[in-house]
Amino acid sequence: MRRVNFAALSRNVSAIGFGCASLGSRVDARRGIAALARAYDAGVCWFDVAPSYGDGHAEALLGDFLEGKRQQVAVCTKVGILPSRVSFPMSIAKPVVQGLIAWLPGLRKHVVKFRSPARAVDLTGAFIESSVVDSLRRLRTDFVDVLALHEPRLADVQRDDVLRSLDKVVSKGYARTIAVAGDLNVALAAATMSQRIRIIQLANNPIRPNVALAKPQLPSGQPMGFVTHSVFGQNGSLDTLASMIAEEADKRSLLEAAGYCLAPREAAAAFLLDYALASNPDGVVLLSMYQPQHLSFDLGRLASSPPPDVVLDVAGRLVATQVCP
Ligand SMILES: NC(=O)c1ccc[n+]([C@@H]2O[C@H](COP(=O)([O-])OP(=O)(O)OC[C@H]3O[C@@H](n4cnc5c(N)ncnc54)[C@H](OP(=O)(O)O)[C@@H]3O)[C@@H](O)[C@H]2O)c1
Q1: Could you tell me the domains of the chain?
Q2: Which residues does a 6 A CB cutoff place in the pocket of ligand 1?
Q3: Which residue minimizes the CA distance to atom 47 of ligand 1?
Q4: Label partner for 265 (CA 20 to 30 A): which of 8, 40, 147, 314?
Q5: What is the pLDDT of residues 247-275, one digit of tens each?
Q6: Closest CA relative to residue 156, chosen from 227, 75, 79, 228
Q7: Do 266 and 241 form a contact (C-beta atoms < 8 A)?
């Protein structure tokens, strides 16, 4: 496993982190814990969770899994979004639905239409403190490495009590450091208002090259680490790029010339992950990897990707030729 010297935590961590958003919701506890174990055994030591993940079950499941391993891993949890409400009929049907999705992953996009939306909270200093204490109890630990404000609004990060509570959370030892996980402009505004913010967590792919956009706008003299997500999933980068490669010969040739001589979907997945790693070389790339074949493919890219400058050059040319919408 490639490791990076992640300055925001003053320690080495795995370049790939495990995203726990589906732990206990799409993915049942047994399959979820097995996936965490496979990733941990392969050297993944960054776990990203939130009170809202897994319909509210992910933190407790991760806490169970981490018993006896806490010192070997970095954990990020969040504050600001509550779990979506699962109706009684849905909770009864859930084990069947989880089994069907594990068998037929394509069903997932239809099932999510029946989920109620996650509930954003108006952040206050008091809420942040009580939320992190609840998270620590569920995670069965006395600190998290990172506490991230979860999709905050601009008004949230401009509140004095919110900014003061971030200092308190660190001084009380609940969190080693603070992140903003969400919109790029809100994260940049928050970083300008508080030197506590040492990590920005955001989507990053050739369609939304947020790390490249953020770097020139960071407050000067404030070191910042990046944790990125949405490599394949959100906004459908994988589907978009795979159909482009399948349908447009010039784009396929561009990727083949860079060494991506694979079937369209596999070439797209390889390129998207290579881009995420190349554009965030000192940070962490979060991935959802519950299926064993995804874990082995994704970790395999660490060893087989072309040089970062080649990957970034191809991404620039793909976007310049409007491969991605
Ligand atoms: N606001 C925030 O802070 C925020 C927002 C979004 C996400 N996140 C974090 O990031 C994590 C990852 O979420 P994401 O949306 O970025 O997901 P993602 O890693 O892009 O994964 C999306 C889907 O792609 C699949 N996949 C993984 N490797 C693949 C491969 N090689 N080929 C084809 N498909 C592959 C995954 O399948 P399986 O999982 O079934 O294997 C998953 O269903 C979340 O769990 C969460 O921790 C944070």
Answers
A1: 3-83+118-232+280-305 (3.20.20.100)
A2: 19-21, 48, 151, 181-182, 201, 229-234, 238, 269, 286-291, 294, 297-298
A3: 19
A4: 40
A5: 989 999 999 999 998 899 999 999 999 99
A6: 79
A7: no
